Each structure stands twice: as structure tokens, then as C-alpha cells.
């Protein structure tokens, strides 16, 4: 798992944060993406989050107005991610398609 | 297979332990096909402080384990702490549900979960696991309205056909009747739920939350002897509980410290008042719909005093009362499985991208595709 800090982009004035999560295969990375994507951020504005999969890596990129809002979103994402990972560990691997 | 052996006993060899005749071969192959067409749905519920996973196979509850997040006396349950509780136990509960049912993931046909209404963080927790296992196991997903889950579970357990439903819990208070593909809300609370009123009263006088504040109020109320008059707030088809709560919050400590009444008297008086209100609006809905059946669902529905009062009203009207016990009244996984089973059988599924949870989701938003 690799994360870059919430460094401020001077052009937009926004904070950015990105996270890469390796998976055993792209299949599992896509399952995690589809489990973690449907729910919108509870807060209406001030934060956006983009999830993508490339190969067997799930990448998340945040963009936020304030560090406080960013922290809450990243924290809850990590809670959600670890639950998905635990679920995969206990009830995986995925059946063959 | 019990059916198979009893039928086979009437077959040509009369139970001599030979199972190779053409009749039995045909019978077994028929039963095999038949059991393959049975539909198994697993349901995940966690919209409030209970987390449950239940498995239903064609109306039969195969398993229904549950855990409750219990807070210290005087404290309610907050969304983030409740979600943390659910995250810590959900996979254990899921494992238990499969083990108790004696099923493997491959035996399941559909994964149902609570889409809403409820607390956001706990709902997300449960949805995440449901989405993940649905994908791991290659099964369709189905988002269920929590209130519909209560109604369908009540109908399954009690066999009530077309009842007027009183749905009473910590988060909801509604009088519901089915008409034209919707469960229509005839009356409801205009502020807080009846269970919320009881729970918060329990916090004021520090009644234990174990196993639930409502259960402990019910036990204390049995020892109450003096009726303390409280506001009675029925507004047409609707009810209001927030004023009653403010009144009793204000009065409780004064009355208790001056020995005007006991905590048991307050429990008794509060129950009598709020349950009378509920019986009144239920009776009004029955009169309106010409209904002769009442079904009580939701956590407050396992209160025996409420069932008794409703029973008196039903008897006077020549109507029938249906209620269930705490296994099915209180939030559980099987109720989501059962509503999911009905929805799945009528052809519904929820695509992953549409599987977002929602804190607000009214009972009458759902099109009931499984009833005439």
C-alpha cells in the first residue's frame, strides 16, 4: 500500500491524496472497486474521490478543500477497505467466472 | 428425504430397503430436480444497533444469528461506534449463519442486504460485505427496504394474509396497509419513533440497555401501580412522542426525588400512554380499510403489554391479532432474506452500481411486485 501525502496543489488550492492498494489479481482489485464505489461521500461538497483499477492495483485519489474533511474521508475509506480485504480473506477466493 | 421414504414405502417393495426400482429412481430424480429449484436467499441486516445474517429457503428459516451493540446505561448508540461494532463481528456472524444452515456459498441463490432506512455508517458496513461476497460467490445482489423486511417476515411467520400492519421500533412508527402494489402509510409519527421515546426515557432514569431498554421498561412497568398522567398526542392518523418525552424527562427527577411516584410507576404510565395512542391509530386504519387482521412488527412489537392492549381492541372488533416474538420482531437477517426472496422470485435484482445505501427510504417508495 502506498500513499502520497495531502500536499496542496497551488493552482487549484485543493488538497490531494492518493493511495495504491495491491491485490493478488486484477479480478480481486475489480471486486474491491465495485464494492467500495457505490456509496457517495456523505458530505455534499468540499471533497471528491476517484477509484480506478490498473492491473491488480486499486488506486484512489482524493481532492479536498480542507485537511479536516480529507482526513475523515480517508479514515473511513481505510475502515471500509480493511473490511473488504478481511471478507475476501475469509470468503474468497472468487469463484471462476 | 422424509417425503421420499414415506412415498417409497407405499411403492412396490414396501420399504424393504431396495431403492433401485423404476418408481423410486423416478421419484428421487424428481425430488433432486425439485430441490434444485428451491431458492435460497441470505440476508444481511445492520441498519441500527443489531447486526444479523439470516438464510431463508422457500419460507424456511435455516439460520438467523444476531449480535447487539449494547451501550452503558444512560448512553445511546452513535453511528460510528455502532459501525465499528458491526465491522468487528459481521464476518463471524456470516460464518455462523452458513454453518448453522449447513450450506456452502454455492448453495445460495441471492445475496440480500438492507439498503435503508437507517444509520449511514452501519448500513455501509453491511452493504460492503454483502457486495463483496456476492461478487466472490458470483451471486446476484438485492437491496431491501428495512420496513418491507419487517412486514414480509411478520407475514411469513404468522401467516397473516392481508393485515393492517403496526410497525413500531426505535427508528420507525407507522400504520401500514397494502393496496395496489404499495405498502401505504396510513399514519405515522410526526417526530420521534415510539421506541426512541422509550429508549431515551430509559437513559434519563439510567435503566440498563441490556438486553434492551424496552425490555427492561416492560419488566419494571409490571411493578408499577400508580398512573401518572402524561400528554396524549394523537393527531388524526398520526402520533407524536417528542412532547411526551420532554414532559417525562422534565418531571421524572422531580417526582422521583420527592417520592411522588416510583420509577416503576413512570415505566407503567409511559407504556400505557404511548401504547394506547398506537392502538387508537391502528383501530382507525382498520376501520378505514375494513380490515379484520392486525400484524405488529418491529422491535417494540415484542412488548407483551402492547400485544395485550392490541388484543383487547381486536377482540372488541372481532378482528385477529398477529404478532411474533423477539427472534423475528427485533431486527434480524432472516427478515431481509425473506423480503429479498419475494423480490428475487418476482424478478428483481440490484446492480452493483445501484447498490448505494440510503438513510431515508420510505416504505411506500417500494413497488410491491410480489403481491396481487
TrEMBL record, chain A:
The keyword Glycosyltransferase does not apply. GO terms for cellular component: cytoplasm; EKC/KEOPS complex; nucleus. Its main location: cytoplasm. It is found in: Cytoplasm; Nucleus. Keywords: Cytoplasm, Nucleus, tRNA processing. InterPro entries: CTAG/Pcc1. The keyword Thylakoid does not apply. Pfam families: Pcc1. GO terms for biological process: tRNA processing; tRNA threonylcarbamoyladenosine metabolic process. It comes from the Eukaryota. Component of the EKC/KEOPS complex that is required for the formation of a threonylcarbamoyl group on adenosine at position 37 (t(6)A37) in tRNAs that read codons beginning with adenine. The complex is probably involved in the transfer of the threonylcarbamoyl moiety of threonylcarbamoyl-AMP (TC-AMP) to the N6 group of A37. LAGE3 functions as a dimerization module for the complex. Belongs to the CTAG/PCC1 family. Component of the EKC/KEOPS complex composed of at least GON7, TP53RK, TPRKB, OSGEP and LAGE3; the whole complex dimerizes. This is L antigen family member 3.
UniProtKB/TrEMBL annotation, chain B:
The keyword Repeat does not apply. NCBIfam families: arch_KAE1, gcp_kae1. Its main location: cytoplasm. It is an enzyme of class 2 (transferase). Binds 1 divalent metal cation per subunit. It comes from Lates calcarifer. Its EC number is 2.3.1.234. Residues 66-337 form the Gcp-like domain. Keywords: Acyltransferase, Cytoplasm, Metal-binding, Nucleus, Transferase, tRNA processing. One of its GO terms (molecular function) is metal ion binding. Substrate binds at residues 167-171, 199, 214, 218, 303. Its cofactor is a divalent metal cation. The keyword DNA repair does not apply. It catalyses: L-threonylcarbamoyladenylate + adenosine(37) in tRNA = N(6)-L-threonylcarbamoyladenosine(37) in tRNA + AMP + H(+). It is found in: Cytoplasm; Nucleus. A divalent metal cation binds at residues 146, 150, 167, 331. InterPro entries: ATPase_NBD, Gcp-like_dom, KAE1/TsaD, Kae1_archaea_euk, Peptidase_M22_CS. One of its GO terms (biological process) is tRNA threonylcarbamoyladenosine modification. This is N(6)-L-threonylcarbamoyladenine synthase. GO terms for cellular component: cytoplasm; EKC/KEOPS complex; nucleus. Belongs to the KAE1 / TsaD family. Signal peptide: none annotated. Pfam families: TsaD.
